[in-house]
Amino acid sequence: MGTAEATEETPGGDPNEASAWGEVAPEAARRLLVAAVEAFAERGYHATTTRDIAGRAGMSPAALYIHYKTKEELLHRISRIGHDKALRILESAADGAGTAADRLTDAVVTFVRWHAAHHTTARVVQYELDALGDEHRAEIVELRRRSDAAIRRIINDGVEAHEFDVPDIPGTTLAVLSLCIDVARWFNVEGRRTPDEVGALYADLVLRMVAAGA
Amino acid sequence: MGTAEATEETPGGDPNEASAWGEVAPEAARRLLVAAVEAFAERGYHATTTRDIAGRAGMSPAALYIHYKTKEELLHRISRIGHDKALRILESAADGAGTAADRLTDAVVTFVRWHAAHHTTARVVQYELDALGDEHRAEIVELRRRSDAAIRRIINDGVEAHEFDVPDIPGTTLAVLSLCIDVARWFNVEGRRTPDEVGALYADLVLRMVAAGA
To answer: How confident is the model over A135-150, as pLDDT tens digits?
Structure first.
């Protein structure tokens, strides 16, 4: 998934991806999460062993078990941090000042930027949900429900203020989130657009979807 | 990925997914492709062995090798058939009669319907590109370039005919394809919308993105 070059240049992984884990301590636990994200993204969750992850982090399997009891616990931590971040971004935009169009722009720009800048992490977070245990999966589904509610709230506000014209609010909410999330699949750091440029393009397209100003 | 129930009911897999492979003969080769799609979707390409695939198809590993020399050859066949189908859908819409809005609607409705009805296959086709060998990957990238060109042609025609108002044609093309492709990630056969309903919703949203009739 294109992380090999970054890993060679920067021990401990792509600095952009690693920056997502600043809150994880101690440093060894953080290093293991970064290694797990890279391994899951390159080979898939099921093809990755805890031994692979420990090796990438330059640690022994025994040292890994001090921090994480199972491979699923690593995936859950990654998924939880990623989904918490997504929810903070979207709720902060929904709670912001300005018109519904301003808040929707803010939500799309920051959500797209996150999925572009952290595309390796985002792919793991978005594609490996089925590998979570039932309890962890239910917890993540609830965070996703709240992310959906944040966007729906902005669109609702826009419709009530006669700023937007949206016949199907749940369907449009789904499409807005889906459009932003899929950035993680196609975004290429060597591509022609920066994360901010994709954010600006997508904010314009989403305002058209809700017929803002029409 | 939710194929377990379908497999129990229907030996040989979900009939919706299996219908994508009608052109593959003999029947044993087709059965192996369907088994490979299910295994790749459930466990990922790297965690799946040719032995797993043969077992799912009720065949011996030796019988598999009569039809496919390597696991990568199976993935390539799946990806090739999926991308050929996508290209046929999009070029047929681009070559169709009617206004640019009619042709764009046709493209979105049929492309979304394929990604919803064949979501298991589509996930493998869309997410396992990096596992292809260099030559096969280049072949698939070329098919994707042509799919992109089909949508871009419709949008260009609409702009030239003053039907659409699109400041960034390549970016809008990318977003339209991305929106349709991501249906494979979230679509749930037990969800509230049928493939046709998602197609109709998305066609409306895409016409808004190009400001058709504005």
So the answer is: 999 999 999 999 999 9
**Nearest residue to B193 via CA among A173, A155, A130, A143:** A173
* Minimal C-alpha gap between B128 and chain A (Å): 10
Give the separation between CA A24 and CA A30, rounded to whole angstroms: 5
Whole-number Å distance between alpha carbons of B184 and B16: 14
Q: Scanning the structure block, which residue is given the tokens 């929904």?
A: A94
Residues ≥6 apart with Cβ < 8 Å to A96: A102, A103, A106
With 90 as the cut, is the pLDDT of residue A11 above it? no
Q: Which domains does chain A have, with CATH numbers?
A: 4-70 (1.10.10.60), 72-209 (1.10.357.10)
Q: Flag whether the pTM goes above 0.95.
A: no
Q: What is the pLDDT of residue B15?
A: 58
Taking CB atoms and an 8 Å cutoff, what residues of chain B touch A185? 126-127, 178, 181-182
Distance, in Å, from the CA atom of B119 to the CA atom of B16, rounded to the nearest integer, reads: 9
Contact A126 B185 (CB under 8 A): yes
Mean pLDDT of A13-23: 67
Query: Each residue of B201-210: b (16+ CB within 10 Å) or e?
Result: bbbbbbbbbb
The token pair that represents B27 in the structure block: 């029947």
- How far apart (Å, rounded) are the C-alpha atoms in residues B4 and B104? 35
CB A202 within 8 A of CB A180: yes
Convert B60-87 to b/e letters by CB count within 10 Å (16 or more is b): eeeebeebbeebeebbbbbbbbbbebbb
Distance CA A181, CA B179 (A): 9
